[in-house]
Amino acid sequence: xxxxxxxxxxxxxxxxxxxxxxxxxxxxxxxxxxxxxxxxxxxxxxxxxxxxxxxxxxxxxxxxxxxxxxxxxxxxxxxxxxxxxxxxxxxxxxxxxxxxxxxxxxxxxxxxxxxxxxxxxxxxxxxxxxxxxxxxxxxxxxxxxxxxxxxxxxxxx
Amino acid sequence: xxxxxxxxxxxxxxxxxxxxxxxxxxxxxxxxxxxxxxxxxxxxxxxxxxxxxxxxxxxxxxxxxxxxxxxxxxxxxxxxxxxxxxxxxxxxxxxxxxxxxxxxxxxxxxxxxxxxxxxxxxxxxxxxxxxxxxxxxxxxxxxxxxxxxxxxxxxxxxxxxxxxxxxxxxxxxxxxxxxxxxxxxxxxxxxxxxxxxxxxxxxxxxxxxxxxxxxxxxxxxxxxxxxxxxxxxxxxxxxxxxxxxxxxxxxxxxxxxxxxxxxxxxxxxxxxxxxxxxxxxxxxxxxxxxxxxxxxxxxxxxxxxxxxxxxxxxxxxxxxxxxxxxxxxxxxxxxxxxxxxxxxxxxxxxxxxxxxxxxxxxxxxxxxxxxxxxxxxxxxxxxxxxxxxxxxxxxxxxxxxxxxxxxxxxxxxxxxxxxxxxxxxxxxxxxxxxxxxxxxxxxxxxxxxxxxxxxxxxxxxxxxxxxxxxxxxxxxxxxxxxxxxxxxxxxxxxxxxxxxxxxxxxxxxxxxxxxxxxxxxxxxxxxxxxxxxxxxxxxxxxxxxxxxxxxxxxxxxxxxxxxxxxxxxxxxxxxxxxxxxxxxxxxxxxxxxxxxxxxxxxxxxxxxxxxxxxxxxxxxxxxxxxxxxxxxxxxxxxxxxxxxxxxxxxxxxxxxxxxxxxxxxxxxxxxxxxxxxxxxxxxxxxxxxxxxxxxxxxxxxxxxxxxxxxxxxxxxxxxxxxxxxxxxxxxxxxxxxxxxx
Lengths: 157, 741
Known about the structure:
The complex is a heterodimer.
Chain A: E1 2-5, E2 8-11, H1 21-28, E3 47-50, E4 53-56, E5 69-71, H2 85-92, H3 102-115, H4 121-128, H5 138-156
Parallel strand pairs in A: 1-5
Antiparallel strand pairs in A: 1-2, 3-4, 3-5
Helix pairs in contact in A: 2-5
Chain B: E1 13-14, E2 19-23, E3 30-34, H1 38-51, E4 65-69, E5 75-79, H2 88-100, E6 107-111, H3 129-156, E7 163-166, E8 169-172, E9 179-181, H4 182-186, H5 219-223, E10 239-243, E11 252-257, E12 267-273, E13 278-283, H6 286-293, E14 297-301, H7 308-315, E15 323-328, H8 331-337, E16 341-347, E17 359-364, E18 369-373, H9 378-389, E19 396-400, H10 414-426, E20 430-433, H11 436-441, E21 449-458, E22 461-472, H12 481-487, E23 506-514, H13 528-545, H14 550-557, H15 562-577, E24 589-597, E25 600-610, E26 616-626, H16 633-652, E27 658-659, E28 662-663, E29 681-686, H17 704-716, H18 727-732, E30 738-740
Parallel strand pairs in B: 5-6, 10-20, 18-19, 22-23, 26-29
Antiparallel strand pairs in B: 1-2, 2-3, 3-4, 4-5, 7-8, 8-9, 10-13, 11-14, 12-13, 15-23, 16-21, 16-30, 17-18, 17-20, 21-22, 24-25, 25-26, 27-28
């Protein structure tokens, strides 16, 4: 079967059709930037965007993603390698520690800023509180999302 | 035949100053490494016993860390320590670059493996990556620097004293135009003379990178999703493995047969070895392998179905059964005359819950095994994998991958052994990645503890204090049996229980190490979190019994020894920073706690409120810390922030329980972690210090629970003697286990 991921078309083995999209991405296609944490939609490490909407890839059957545009962390930076404003802010604020959760954090934040370019602190917390970070980088995540929002507004102005 | 690039084949030799050097394999340029000298080892063993840290390097002839200067001007720093988010690779690069006079951009940090890399029997544990390697790494770098300077002097026809190494070149102090790049100096040189004098180490005022918040070298790759962790490893022709798990704690595999597993779609091989208690499947996808495992025909025997109350009972032992660890005066006699208060504290089993479950990729052929695994203990993994395969250790190469969190859990490497056994049978590379349920249930846990205290208060001071401590094993599970027998009590289990208040005349700490039916072991800080909770909460109880302010009470009991002086400084600093004692908003209170760990002193103040239903809100945590020289201030800050969040998660939420022989939680629905909405503002102040670096990965987790609990007491009069602090306990006040005698 075919999937549209990061603007390209991929062929993935039918073995993965009934499995969660997460495993088609990681094992079927080698796009291992999307991480496995719980497989139950709790931790958020596998967050990707389906037609722009932040979605837990561990809960979506691969077959159900065949008709949508999938964006993963590998597709967030520009073609020329320029980081997305959220990635750039996370680098500048030195947010990650182990970073296993960070693809999910970044994808969730990118979706938030597209939906709400000027989130308040409470809105950032409300959008990000369902993404676990065991290393405890929450304060930095919060400030980096705010910084990214500011940058993004500056870019589009 | 162990490897192409083992240090021994680089013609290393031990020099008079304990530095290894030699000319590398083709094109490798100059190679210099450092072994930990005897003094370091002896000092480290002393610290192990005093503070729970262990030595950081290799043996007599294996380097603990080494460099290669390549003709391309790249300086490769090969390190034994794994990067699990603690920033060790960046901090080690800073130390190396400074002492070497390298440019930041030319340093390339390479993760050593067990063949090509440095020996590191200790692993990445004990907050010791920077503190343990600080001096050996600098010595190696300084040696390399002086060798480069000497060779450059020869080439330039000038005197060594007129040259300096900086920015990756050796240049004339008088005329910076006269210079040679490091890469030019090493190109084509085959023999390097030993230095005729010990290299001079730079003084702190010469540091350019040490003490600065250099950006982490691994962060951008990780944020692009390009870093390879254990779970991400791939190889041509690879398959996926899954392994049968016992249905209950302690269950034994009596018999096993393939059943219908081999017929399951995608199955490549079924591997059964009841003697090893092993049955697994190799298949084309993970899901196929897991489904097929369920079709294996396995007979399990459970001799005893363990319950949570059995574990609790194993710690509920006679006080006199413990081994005395700390004894001043005669606390028992003084307490027999009169006891002012007693209390019992407990902390439960807890999980590491690192977000990357354990994973490994193995490629085993007839004679040799290559295993990549996310582990903190590559050397130990090599030994165990070799033993499982019946190979010589030299024929097994273990390469640590990036770790998606360690926290002690990845001192284990079970998937490495499992993948190796499966790969040998299936004759292809096999990846084993544990499910969250496997990671929650099949590993080892932070042990439960139980602490009984008795104290006598006289004239506002502690006249006598007795602490009877019991815990599950921490380090004993790693130690040889004989060492455990000789030590009697597990130093990891009582880490954090040692009383630090030098002005208590009569004090006794005894501890008992219990082997539990559920495996227990290393967790961030070992016993530090639970024991500091107990000790520093009871310190607060004693302060209230004495009618004293808890902060002043602590200051009054600190001695004039080094620990006492350093602790006084951080307590005073945190009080100032948090404006301790100020009028707080209605419904808020501050609690104080402190600890000493891996040579670092920490004092903490938590500002807390409590809702009507008993839900605790921690608004602000202020910490003052003195950790010796801080190599990377922002990295050290991140470790403090992360430790506080993890400590708070354990304080408010985390508990593993056993029911009918099964660990109840198999995912985060039953074992939730702290989230952003419950994370307090965290303010950390570092005190300047002339001391060498101490650990920062663990100490800050120590005081969290006590600081919060002490604030809740101040607010509500309810003393919380068990973590996690559940709302129902706060609302009801679980103070049944304390008493005034």
